[in-house]
Structures are given as C-alpha cells and as structure tokens.
Amino acid sequence: MRMQVIFGILLIFTQASMEPTTTADNSTQSHDGLLFQDPVVCRFNESSQCYVALGQRLHLQMPLEDGFELKITDKTSTTHLILKYRKHQSNPPKPNHPRWQFIKDYKTMILTSAERSDSGTYTLETFDANGNTKGSYTLQLNIEAMVSSVKVWYSCLCAEVTKVQCSADGDNLRFIWIANLSTLTQLGNAHSTFLLDKNHQGNINCNVENHVSRDRRTIELHPCSDQEDL
After folding, report:
1. pLDDT digit string (tens) for 56-88?
2. Distance between CA atoms of 161 and 12, rounded to whole angstroms?
3. Contact residues for 42 (Cβ-Cβ < 8 A; gap 6+)
4. Tens digits of residue pLDDT in 177-212
5. Torsions phi, psi of 72, nearest 5?
6. Start and end of every Ig-like domain (predicted)?
7. pTM for the structure as a whole
8. How many beta carbons lie within 10 A of that of residue 116, not counting itself?
9. Domain at 148-221: CATH architecture
10. Residues 92, 160: Cα–Cα separation, whole Å
11. Which of 43, 70, 73, 224 is the most buried (most CB within 10 A)?
C-alpha cells in the first residue's frame, strides 16, 4: 500500500472497494447541486467540450448560416445524421432523432432529457446559400450522472491512527478533503480514504464533485483511545 505524508498529519491512500467498519453518526451534509443552470446552453463556436447532467435539458445553438448538417459519432465510432437544414426550405426540417427538437427561428437544437447514449462527438458542417462548404465545427458532448449519496465515516486503527473514508455515487468523481486548513485532491470511482495521526481532531470535510455537480459532507473526529485499538 502506497502512503504519503501531507503536512506531517495526513497519510493518504486510495482504494477501489469499501472496507466494513463502524459508521460514525455525527456527520452533516450540504447539497451544492448542479454547476450549470437548466437548460445547459452549448455553442459550437465557443468550446470543444460540453458537459450535461444525466436527465438535464440541453440547448445546442447553431451558427447563423444558410445551411448546415449536424452529425454525431457515438462511442461505437458510428456516425449518424441528426439534422440537415437549408434556409430556403419551406417547412422546418425534423431531426432524425426523436428526442431532439429544432427551433428554426432561434437556430437551436433542444434535447429535452440527456441520456448516456447522447455522449459523443458532434460535427457541424456549414454551407452558404449556393451549397458551398463554409466551415466545420466539432463539439464533444459528455453526459455525467450527478454526485449523490455522499457518506463519510471514520474508525480507529489504533490509539495513534484514525482512518477516514468517504463514498459517493456519480460519474468521474473527484474527492477533495479539507483538514486543518490543508487540502488534498484524489480521483476515484466511488471511494476515497486517508489516515490521520493522533494530533488531528475537529472537523473533516469531504467534498465530491465532477463536471456537472458537487456535494459535500462534514464529520467531527474524536480522539481514539487505547480500548479502540484494532
């Protein structure tokens, strides 16, 4: 097991699975929620990445061009045509995907409820009034589950060492521990752990976040006694 001393107090390690232990019940939780308001608005000419929470609404704004074709290349490397638009069309075109809507007046594609299958690389080719190619844009759309079910607890390994653990649900989680005004960041699938020596008492904050949301929980540590040695 690899360990690292942080500010002379924290001994850090990360593990993939949760070990059985006694759960402390003196923790408090704060909900920060989504990082972006609903709906999320993404544009092809602003950024190459777009993050949307699972189930959230997305507004994808198109450039003001005479024509465009919108395609998606999914995680299986399969490319699908979503919409073909030409300004001279008498009737607004309908997207090939039933969950997408196209608002012609605002040149906006609307996804009412994002699903994991919507993740992929979106390519937009634009055309002038004569059908000549003007440009091409690429946008990576990432759908992530929100951070939820954050739990934090601790156990005494011996009178000298306390093990603190934090778990959460969600995608691409990042755990940020705050103790004694020191901050430590760990990446993990669902679980993060660190060790404290006997000099540490007081509150420990476990902040969990990903690209679309964040949540946190605080627990108060009490000294370990010799009777609690494992």
Report:
1. 999 999 888 889 999 999 888 999 999 999 988
2. 12
3. 50, 52, 58, 59, 60, 61, 139, 141
4. 887 656 777 776 788 888 887 777 778 889 999 999
5. -125, 135
6. 161-220
7. 0.74
8. 12
9. Sandwich (2.60)
10. 70
11. 70
CA distances (Å), 120 to each of 31, 83, 191, in order?
Answer: 29, 16, 27
Three-state DSSP class for 75? coil
Is 216 within 8 Å of 29 (Cβ atoms)?
A: yes
13, 195 Cβ separation under 8 angstroms: yes
Residues in the chain: 230
Note the pLDDT tens digit of each residue in 43-52: 887 678 999 9
> Tokens at residue 216, please?
């946190």
Question: What are the two backbone dihedrals, phi and then psi, of residue 27, each rounded to the nearest 5 degrees?
Answer: -105, 155
Please tell me the distance from the alpha carbon of residue 186 to that of residue 145, in angstroms, as a whole number: 19
Label residues 2-18 b or e (16+ Cβ within 10 Å = b): eeeebeebbebeeeeee
The predicted pLDDT at position 55 comes to 93
Which is it for strands 49-53 and 133-144: parallel, antiparallel or unpaired? parallel
Q: Where in the chain is the domain with CATH 2.60.40.10?
A: 40-144, 148-221
